[in-house]
Amino acid sequence: MKEKTYFRWILILAILLFGLMYVVRHTDVFRSQEFSGEQYEGKVVSEVESCFQCHQQTKGFSEYHNPELIGCANCHLGNTSSFNKEEAHEGMVLIPGNLADAQKTCGRCHANELHNVEHSLMTTNSGLVAVDKFVFGEADSLNAHYHIKNLQYSAADKHLRDLCANCHLGGQKTDYGPITQLSRGGGCNACHLNYSQQAKADLSSYMASNKTQLPQVHPSNDVFMDDTHCFGCHSRSSRISTNYIGLQETLLDEAEVAHSKGHVVLEDKRVYKQLQEDVHHTKGLLCIDCHSSHEVMGDGKTYSHAEDAVTLKCNDCHFKSKPRTVPFDSIDRESRLVYLHRGYEHRDKEILVKEKDGRPLINTYVDSLGNAFLIGKKDQKLHPLAPQSAVCSRDNTHKNVSCSACHSSWIPRCIGCHNKFDGNEAQAFDLLAKKLVKGQWKEYVAEFSASQPALGVREHKDGNTVEPAIPGMVMTIDKGSYSGHPDTDVSFHRLFAPNAPHTTTKAVRDCKSCHANPYTLGYGNGTLVYQTNKEIGEWVFTPEYALNPNDGLPEDAWIPFMKEGTAQEPTSTRTNFRPFNVAEQQRLLFVGACLQCHDDTSKVMQQTLEQGLEMSMKQLSKACILPVQ
Q1: Cβ-based neighbour number of residue 360 at 10 Å
Q2: Between the CA of residue 448 and those of 247, 473, 513, 548, 556, what are the distances in Å?
Q3: CA distance 468 to 458
Q4: Distance (Å, rounded) from C-alpha 553 to C-alpha 414?
Q5: Contact call for residues 595 and 510 (beta carbons, < 8 A)
Q6: Angle (nearest 5°) at CA 392 between 368 and 597
Q7: DSSP of 76-145
Q8: Each residue of 481-513: pLDDT tens digit?
Q9: pTM of this prediction?
Q10: Which of 24, 194, 344, 601 is most buried (CB neighbours < 10 A)?
Q11: Helices assigned H by DSSP within 209-332
């Protein structure tokens, strides 16, 4: 009897303990301790740091960087025991967050995040370096791993120093002020530094007073970044940031568009033409609404190229039938931190997760009726997440075609890129060393334009996928000019690159734009005509641009018309991405021939989407004239 009573009390105590743990775990106090990673034991740091004798009542800090709790020295270092200005400021870091000192500043509390950032492509630029060294003939692999900080002074390294090495997180932020279009690098500041209007005004007064009028409002370090934080670097290269807001680069000068409503002049004076913006941008969505911290800061692994590190897929939000979800209690620590800092309140709802890595999209949830929503990080606006349309979900023919191949409205293009070293340039600037030097690589571009994307084939273990392609490195390099012997060693490269243009539209491109468009197929702009003679059909292509003497292809082409291979190999900046081979071109143009008579929405073409080309071939009319194979 006593034994039963004993076990009964044990059971009751266990239940009470479990209940107490549950209540505590779901209180704000526990959550703040759980996510902060710090235990302050009630001590107010401001009472022991000498910093507060001068810097009193300063405002503007984010809730989780309140100096009364974490002090000033955790970020700025210095001597907190001295009340002498010079001694107190000894060893101070005025702009903490640069990767050069992050181990002593941000990394003291955010060691995991710093580790991930230091291994991320935005810090190493590994893919950028690998491709450049490959085209210069200084490396035999497009996938080798590099770190941009280790560049020396070979022709390729100097090329990167002069033209490319500005955009990496290891670059130092040395000036006070907010992140702008001109900002590059800055380590943690690149994403997390935010100035309020009052903080900007106080900074201006501080600088105007010869640094005697101390600011009362401090800039904030928080998770509330906007697209400006991405713009400085991602408006270069494939120009994702400018694509997203509907801007295409031109060669025009600011004076030429002074009175034009269709152009925009950026802070660096580049002139852009207004085109169609991404549908997500029209809804007010930010880059970080889709690209979570695990992608942006990295996951600690090393990757060869950006697309390897990106885990988000369109169907993570626009699912085919049912979304993939997890309960809040299952999400990882980093995601919980972002959730807490943003003040979300959907702990009781399922959260969408990405198919590729299982990471949660913490600004999404599914309600009790099965409806999915995204909470916009810019304005907290609720956006219903629509499943795939019936057209996409029932289309069996295009299962291997990426969403962006059909839903991208345009891509940026350039032709006629020539690279030559000018050894006499006295005002050259080394972007990596951040200093003036003598001698500089210069890039000359003949034309910027835009069009619907070309398409290529990504080869991977699960099968091939059709993806958009853009001119990656279609250019000549006068390597002899670097050694003082111009025009003696000139190489030509015609490399396209896989690309997600971020010019998404709800509408899709029509069938002919893929199956009968010469640029899409890789031939370049021009006229592609299907000619029939009695019972024989033949495609004839006439290019718009002159032939490049280096390989005999039109200036804007990727591959020759209906011929296997090109004079230049490889054809892509990736080892697993290529243009359509002849058999694939023939199949695409076969459908293109059908489209000369049958409209996209016709019964026979709709049946082909659902049943496949082979089934439609069994129902050919005698009037059909097929292309010569």
Answers
A1: 26
A2: 12, 14, 21, 17, 11
A3: 10
A4: 15
A5: no
A6: 155
A7: HBS-TT--SHHHHTTTB-SSTT-TTTTTTTGGGT-HHHHHHHHTSHHHH-HHHHHHHHHHTTS-S-SS--
A8: 999 999 999 999 999 999 999 999 999 999 999
A9: 0.90
A10: 194
A11: 228-234, 240-244, 279-282, 287-290, 293-296, 306-309, 314-317
Report which of residues 440 and 613 the model is more confident about: 440
The predicted model gives 258-279 an average pLDDT of 94
| Calculated CA dihedral for residues 301, 303, 306, 311, nearest 10 degrees | -50
603-610's contacts with Cβ under 8 Å and 24+ in sequence apart are: 605/511, 608/397, 609/394, 609/395, 609/396, 609/397, 609/398, 610/394, 610/395, 610/396, 610/397
Distance CA 51, CA 55 (A): 6
Task: Specify the residue for token string 């913490």.
Answer: 362
- Element of type H or E holding 221: strand 220-221
- Six token digits for residue 238: 């494939």
Interacting residues of 317 by C-beta distance below 8 A, sequence separation 6+: 290, 352, 361, 364, 372, 374, 385
Task: Give the DSSP letter string of 403-463.
Answer: HHHHHB--EEEEE-EEEEEETT-TTEEETTTTEEES-EEEEE--EEEEESPEEEEEEETTE
The predicted model gives 352-362 an average pLDDT of 95
- Six-digit token string for 88: 């107190």
The residue ranges of every structural domain in the chain are 2-35, 37-122+167-222, 126-163, 241-284, 396-617
Given a contact cutoff of 8 angstroms between Cβ atoms, the answer to whether 421 and 484 are in contact is no
For 299, the token pair is 């996951």
Beta-carbon count within 10 A of 257 CB: 17
